[in-house]
Design a protein that fits this description.
alpha+beta, 2 domains, three-stranded antiparallel sheet, three-stranded mixed sheet, 5 helices
């Protein structure tokens, strides 16, 4: 494993454990060169899920793309990277258990919004504003009002 800080091609594993959903192995590592610590995840590569986009285009599911979108929504909200990883792990497991090898992006987006709504309402609104493509402040106001009245 190459150190992300100094590129040394060796590391010492300090801790190893399965993630909560047992979809990956988490390893805490330390570089003997620069002595910095970092975390790696090992996952089984399985049959790729196909995401059908709004315009009909198809692309393979990209965990990192989902992770990035959720991280952006959760930015400066006090939600740890470990919590975000758990969210993505759960969504990925749900995808793997989906009855078909293709899924509409609308379904996946709704799953993300449902989880974020429970975790952090501001992160939910951030994600929803992009996902639902709000065109004006009135649409945003209606979505916030739904959250407040529940």
């Amino acid at each position: 494993m190459k150190c992300p800080f100094c590129n040394l091609e060796e590391s010492k594993v300090l801790d190893k454990r399965a993630t909560e959903n047992a979809v990956a192995v988490r390893r805490r590592r330390e570089c003997p060169g620069c002595e910095k610590r970092y975390t790696t995840y090992e996952r089984i590569e399985e049959t790729q899920m196909i995401i059908v986009k709004k315009d009909g285009k198809k692309e393979t599911f990209d965990r990192n793309k989902l992770l990035k979108g959720i991280r952006i929504a959760c930015e400066k909200r006090g939600i740890s990277d470990q919590r975000i990883e758990k969210i993505v792990d759960g969504l990925e497991l749900k995808l793997k258990n989906y009855k078909q090898s293709e899924i509409n992006s609308k379904i996946l987006g709704n799953w993300v919004m449902a989880v974020l709504k429970k975790v952090d309402k501001v992160a939910y609104i951030r994600f929803a504003s992009v996902y639902k493509e709000f065109t004006d402040i009135e649409e945003l106001r209606k979505e916030v009002k739904k959250l407040i009245t529940k």
